[in-house]
Amino acid sequence: MKPKKRQKLCQNCEGEIDLDVIVCPFCAADLREEKPEKGRMQVQSNTTTSFNPTFESLYPSPHAPRTFEESAAPPAPEAKEEEGRPSYVFPLFLITLGVQLLLLGVLTLLFSHHGAVVLKWSAKFWFIYLFASLPLLVFGYKALK
Asked: For residue 110, is it within any domain?
């Protein structure tokens, strides 16, 4: 007869796992049982509270307190720039998407053969496509600025 493995229940998912497992294979919970030393915990808690400055300290801070008016003034112009930018990006996106879908619908309506449209590009005229795209790119870039 084979001896039974010693198992325990996971605290999170209550799955049966081996005793020596550190991470639950079912829910990936950390199963290490750390037993803190009382003396060590007291030393750590005292050192952390002594170094952390609090508002209720007995001595005044050597640093001058910051004024909130100085920090509030600079973000205002940045907020205006951020608010101004999406005002034309979203409508431009909607118009571009609408025009492309309109052209696709018109092409399908006029040039479909049994419900399918085949678009072929001739490689002989690559220079025409290139030269036609350059002014469009330049004027579009200038319009965005």
From this structure: no
Q: Kind of pairing, strands 7-9 and 16-18?
A: antiparallel
Residues 15-58 have pLDDT tens digits of: 888 888 888 888 888 887 754 555 445 545 554 555 555 555 56
- pLDDT level of residue 65 (50, 70, 90 thresholds): low
How many domains would you assign to the chain?
A: 1
Residue 133 lies in a domain: no
Q: Report the chain's terminal Cα–Cα distance, integer Å.
A: 82
Other beta carbons within 10 Å of 56? 5
| Residue 87: both structure tokens together | 């005002």
* Residue partners of 32: CB distance under 8 A and separation at least 6: 22
How far apart, in Å, are the Cα atoms of 109 and each of 16, 95, 100, 117? Answer: 64, 21, 14, 9
Beta bridge partners of 16: 9
Q: What is the pTM of this model?
A: 0.31
Backbone torsions φ then ψ of 20, nearest 5 degrees = -85, 5
- DSSP H or E stretch at residue 112: none
